[in-house]
Amino acid sequence: MPWTKEETITTDEIIVDLYHCPICGSDDCVPPSYEQSDVLWIGESPGDEEVKRGKPFVGPTGRLVQAELSYLGLPMYTFRMCNLWIHPPPNNKKSEYYNDCFEYSVKIVMNEAKDKKLVVLVGAETVKFFTGLKVSDWNGLLVKSNLLSNPYILALVHPATAFKGSCGEMRFGLQRFAHYMEEING
Questions:
Q1: Cβ(79)–Cβ(119) under 8 Å?
Q2: What is the residue range of 21's domain?
């Protein structure tokens, strides 16, 4: 059953132990960061380093974003971070747990997105899920979502594009993020 905005989310539906998936039993879960913020970053899924440390955006791409944001005067640790998947997705999309684990992760993300002034969608899969759009066409721009109603929703290319020689796209998106942060903070 696909996720719809009309579904209500209660904290009772979200298991308190976010380090273990109640659907498939995975212990590779990475809960949202501890920072309380009006800004939420939503990545795609945790990588190896995120799983080891139990924190989102701490791997190579997270460190790259941290360095770039620091250069812009925006410390990354002041933003709330999470991933569309709470744990790395099963390799097989036909796995009996694939859809249920994804829906559970989406409930967590939707709960995190409540009342945020700015939601940053990072990566092609995240942007496509929330908007149906191609991130390459919308990088650094505000987008609309049928699932999110936050005042600002920003699409960003995945930071890993910088490792493939496209650092300019990532930097442009982060500069636009800095611009919207100025607008939000007045």
A1: no
A2: 11-185
Strands (E), 10-103: 39-43, 80-83
Residue 171 counted as domain residue = yes
**In a domain? residue 91:** yes
Q: 91, 78, 99, 98: which is closest to 36 by C-alpha? A: 78
The rounded distance, in Å, linking the Cα atoms of 33 and 27 is: 17
Burial group, residue 186, by CB count within 10 angstroms (0-12, 13-18, 19+): exposed
**Does 3 fall in a domain?**
no
Predicted structure pTM score: 0.89
Task: List pLDDT tens digits, range 128-141.
Answer: 999 999 999 999 99
Share of the chain above pLDDT 70, in %: 90
CATH number of the structural domain spanning residue 85: 3.40.470.10
